[in-house]
Amino acid sequence: MDKTYYESVTTMEQRGVDPEYILGWQCGYLGNPPREEQRSTEAYTKGYEDGRARTTAGMDAWAKAKK
């Protein structure tokens, strides 16, 4: 993997981003086909769109609140 991919995934995991968003982002970034409609979630879809665009701008919206 390239450095951007690794650093982006590491940052998302450290910030507690929804795993569905991360998975979607990874699939979009790598150019994988999206999930079939019945298995897709909003978080996955937004992550997929951001991954295709190679941006992490939307990840904060999917970060879980830290206690």
Would you mind describing this structure in some detail?
- The protein has helices spanning 3-14, 19-30, 42-53.
- The chain contains three helices and no strands.
- 30% of the residues are buried.
- The chain has 67 residues and is mostly helical.
- Helix 1 (3-14) packs antiparallel against helix 2 and helix 2 packs parallel to helix 3.
- Helix content is 54%, strand content 0%.
Essential attributes:
67 residues; 0% strand; 3 helices
Structural class: mainly alpha
Average pLDDT for all residues: 92
- β-sheet strand percentage: under 5%
Poorly predicted regions: none
Number of helices: 3
Inertia-based shape:
globular
Amount of helix: 40-55%
Total strand count, please? 0
Q: Could you state the order of secondary-structure elements as H and E?
A: HHH
Largest sheet: none
Q: State Rg.
A: 11 Å
What is the terminal separation in angstroms? 32 Å
